[in-house]
Give the backbone structure.
Amino acid sequence: MIEKPLILIANDDGYQAKGLRKLVELMRSIGRVVVVTTEQPMSAQSHSITTNIPLRYRLHEKSNDYMMYICNGRPADCIKLGYQQIMEQLPDLVVSGINHGSNASVNVVYSGTMGAVIEACMANIPAVGFSLDCYDSDAVFDHVDDYVLDISDKVLTKGLPAGVCLNVNFPKFSDEAIKGVKVCRQAKARWVESFDKRRDPMGRDYFWVTGIFIEDECEEDTDIYALNNNYVSVVPSHYDWTSYSALKTVNGWFENNNFDIK
């Protein structure tokens, strides 16, 4: 009998999030599942980790081939604790999400969902982040089932290149069926912030940050185009931030630099 794959799940929306429950349901249909999730919503935590307070976790749910732990840390902490302290062996796959909100384009930089994925990728564990382009806490996820299972199965059976993980985004549920999958690049976009300045009873200023998302491009090979046209976007991603195209240019700024840059 072939043993089911061992799957570690994390997220950044907290243990009560509907997207997490959907991902747990799907992963339990194909493997043995350990969930390590945040106690509170931790959106926009990126790859931050907890260093100034003790980390704690507790068992929240347990049944056959399934355990859920709740952690007081951040999404990346959940991955570290999961494979280093809670699990007795490395997982075959890490999945994060399903996030309530898009992590396409520059959103990936801020994403706690993808922070967990990058943490797993750094440990050479195959990892995928799943996000839905809908911020509603009661969002509909039923249209993503087949795609989550298919992508997860492909990663489990085919593997990923070293240092590479997947950032997967789903369009919001609509009456039109998803058209398919587009493997694409991250689009250029940006957030333009607006600061709502207020004053507390002590006379001190404070701010609520809001903003609008500006799409600077929507070429057919980008994740923004895929989502806007009802496709699933799959962006192969990595944690190496080196700009290889700029190495020679910046190297030329410095005299007596003997590095051989190819």
